[in-house]
Predict the structure.
Amino acid sequence: MNPTELTVLGRFSCRVAGRPQLLSPRGERLLAYLALHRVPLRRDRLFGALWGDSSEARASSNLRSTLWRLPRPDAGPLVRAEGGQIGLADHVVVDLWRVEAGEAEGRELDLLAGDLLPGWDDPWVFFERERYRQLRLHALEDMCARRRDQSRYADALRLGLLAVQSEPLRETAHRQVMQVHLAEGNAGEALCQYDGFRRLLHAELGLPPSSAMRSLVDDVRYGGP
């Protein structure tokens, strides 16, 4: 059986055997909401989240219509409804879940994809987007350090710079980039990275870099203790 691939990182898409599935906007919202919550949910919770401005009768009608209009690929229905609860079918694979599980296969590509459902302004997306943003930044930094330890400096820089781009005021991301430059023997690049961060931090927050970051720079300039 070909799994259904649901993408919520960088964009929304639904594919079966690599083929895009045509969904209504309501269908996209329903699948995304179930993906972000990971477990089957009661119908009344879906009413409030997806059709909060409607009466219960109208929300129930909207949900039935949305479910009826979902594609029905050979792999089976995209959702299952049991005991008054609705959840994603077992054959649906979600890229967000793969990142959270730390699975090696495909995880790096998922991390490179970008934020969770960018451009979506639904209130229920905001908390999950911020939670994923923090997870993603830590994962990028961790993978940057591992690539550096493996002497895969180009890959390490790509990951570290992506973390910096995602959160320019995040000191730990800048430190990872500096450490890659130093491991590669590019002390000048490391100092330029530090100076750029120092200027940005002062301009935005009026703060200096931490003592840990200044010590790293002193080690470069003065040869360490």
The domain at 134-222 is CATH 1.25.40.10 (Serine Threonine Protein Phosphatase 5, Tetratricopeptide repeat). The chain has a mean pLDDT of 89. The chain is about 60% helix and 10% strand.
